[in-house]
Amino acid sequence: MQSFIKHYLFLPIMAIISMMGISCSTTHEKQVEEVLSQMTTRQKVAQLIMVSCDSYNLPAKRLNRDTLVREEGIGGLIIFHDSLPRSIARLNELQSMSRIPLLVGVDGEWGPSMRYSEFPFFPRQMQLGALSSDTLVYQMGLAIAEQCKMVNLHINFAPVVDINTNPKNPVIHTRSFGENKERVTQFASAYMRGMQDGGIYASAKHFPGHGDTDVDSHRSLPILPFSRERLDSLELYPFKSMIEQDVAMVMIGHLFIPSLDTIVSTLSHKVVTKLLKEEMKFDGIVVTDALNMKGVSSTLRPSEVTLAAYKAGVDLLLMPNEVKRSIDLIVSAVESGECSMEDLDNRVRKILRLKAKLGMLTEGYSALIDSTDIVNRVRKPEHIALAQKLADHSITMVENRGNLVPLDTNKRIAYVAYNAKHIPLVRFYGELDGLSGYCPETGMIDSTTILYQQIKQSNYNIDYFKLNKKSTLKEIAELEKSLTSYDMIILACHDPYGRPKDNLIDEQHMEALGQIVKTIPTLMVQFSTPYGLNNIPWISDLGSIIISYQDSESNQLATSKVLTGLIPALGVLPVSAAGYTAQ
Question: Which CATH number fits the domain 395-563, given the four candidates 3.40.50.1700, 3.40.47.10, 3.20.20.70, 3.30.450.40?
Fold first, then answer.
């Protein structure tokens, strides 16, 4: 009887919920059509444009942005590296000028901390790819959505779904979940679902796939010389899945793919409309990668690039140069009949629907951000704890010859920090505090690393030595003499820049360090990607190898737990390197 009553009540409840959904949808469509009916052709075109925004006091740039918002009525802004309080003040200023509230996006692949250093710092995607399941990735997506909503960011141009099959890729690299297409798809989907379940629009990028290139599209045009069959089986694989799971946006990469077209993908009707929209049936928002990047901007005058991207079928034009002239050209193409008004209206509807769903088109809506105590509010303890949990579950033990891990309290240990920086690096990459040797929360402010401090505090017999890329061979020789009395070495190699451009260890130091490794059992901890192992000629002489991915406070703390036996190394390799195969 009880189950019958539940079932009986369930039907009208679901009917009410269903009707509410229809009502909301109808209300949003009415709002969209009402706004659209009042717009000029120029205002419609402007809604498709998103420009960068920062708080720097450059009068000409500030005036330009004011004019684009107040007079042209552009549709949105994208923020980059900035001070959070100043940025909020500037965003509030621009929102107050806009007749239609502005969509605000962030290129935050590891969350708002990628642009605002005040936020807690989550790992890059390659480290996430080392996790054994996608559960924590989904939780991170939810947390990032919560962070974005705290400062009225509506779109996060993430995740990267490129499959990094090229170890020499200079631009995707740590931004990819790895080299396995199923794993990349699984983890990217979890990240996307977390964000979108949390109310933030996600964007899969960089279509049709930027993983197997050795050229940075910020600087030049990458070429993918692959057949359509290869693209279908690999590069396009995660995009197909993300589209099936209703990802809000797909970002087009600046790529040259002869098997698809003879022009750059961003400007290709065959790629944008025929392949993505028609063949793959993507009906969400197609967005360009930044139109000021060299991979596309060197081909035509900036405003002509914008027009060509529009003609290709793009819905959202990101960071074009010559914005006013770009609008002029698209308006002219529409009014002359070269491009249809119906098509323009449909693209504008997509943008306005996003705004309607966010409540932006509702009377009385305020886009202004409450900046009261904002720095403390965004440092949520649960997000810091999640970042630590992600680190604890992703540290990867590649090798443990001689069972050097966990460390033996009876052994005399030399800790050699190579290229450790004692400043909070991610002024550039997003972490407020915590790189090597800098941890105000725990009072560690001397010139040693957090990893060393944690081991030392656990009552191990350990001493600290340091080298860097400027160390002389004489200094290394002197170090070698000092190390002879130790039972083992921890060689901690730090990458303080997050996107490695060269070897972690300087080439002139390789041979000298190799001699040390051959004579004393050595555990190497690499605060960088597994690819760094490819450049070490004496890798087979190492006793144990740990990949700790990034030089962050949470990773150093997690690594110390692994080395002292508090937690196991649960991570798996997301990419193959030095003969070790990805999982």
Answer: 3.40.50.1700
